[in-house]
C-alpha cells in the first residue's frame, strides 16, 4: 500500500529534557531520521521525512509539552490527509521494564498524559502505539520526577540496541503491517 505514514514521537522539548525517560518517543524518531538521512525542520513541530519502499514516512516531534501532543499530531494527519490507520505514536511506558517495547492498536492511554492528549484530539484510540519500556521508579520516587530523569549509565549502554529494535519495528509496521511489526519486537525479547 503506497501513500504517506505518520510516525509521531512523543517527548518534551528543550535541552532540559534531552535524554530523559519521557523522551523515549523522540529518541526512536531521531534514530529513524538518522538511519534514513532525513533532516529535521520546523519549530512548533519538528518534522522529517524519508521514503521506504515507495511509502513516504513523515516523522514528527511536537515541540509542545508532552501533555499537549494531541493537537499537533491531529493537525499533521489533517494537513497531509493521512488516515488514522497510518499513524504510529511512539511513547515511553512505565508498565514495561527498560529494554522492552510493545506495539498495539487501540486501548486506553493508561496514565500517559501525552497519549491521553492524542486520544482526545483524534476522538479515537484506533491507531497504533509503540510503547517503549522505561521501567518503574524506585519506592519513594514520584513518577513525575522519574520520567524526567536521564537514563542510568547501564540503560544508556543498552539504549542503542533498544532503539534499533524499535526502528526495525516501525519499518516493519509501515511495510508489512502490525502483526509483522509485533513479531519483530517479540522475537527480539525471546533472545
From TrEMBL:
TRNA binds at residues 17, 67, 113. Monomer. It catalyses: an N-acyl-L-alpha-aminoacyl-tRNA + H2O = an N-acyl-L-amino acid + a tRNA + H(+). Gene3D superfamilies: Peptidyl-tRNA hydrolase. The keyword RNA-binding applies. SUPFAM superfamilies: Peptidyl-tRNA hydrolase-like (SSF53178). One of its GO terms (molecular function) is hydrolase activity. This is Peptidyl-tRNA hydrolase. The record marks 92 as: Stabilizes the basic form of H active site to accept a proton. The lineage of its organism: Bacteria, Bacillati, Actinomycetota, Actinomycetes, Kitasatosporales. It is an enzyme of class 3 (hydrolase). Signal peptide: none annotated. Belongs to the PTH family. It is found in: Cytoplasm. The record marks 12 as: Discriminates between blocked and unblocked aminoacyl-tRNA. The gene is pth_1. Its EC number is 3.1.1.29. Keywords: Cytoplasm, Hydrolase, RNA-binding, tRNA-binding. The active site is at residue 22. It holds the Pfam family Pept_tRNA_hydro. Hydrolyzes ribosome-free peptidyl-tRNAs (with 1 or more amino acids incorporated), which drop off the ribosome during protein synthesis, or as a result of ribosome stalling. Catalyzes the release of premature peptidyl moieties from peptidyl-tRNA molecules trapped in stalled 50S ribosomal subunits, and thus maintains levels of free tRNAs and 50S ribosomes.
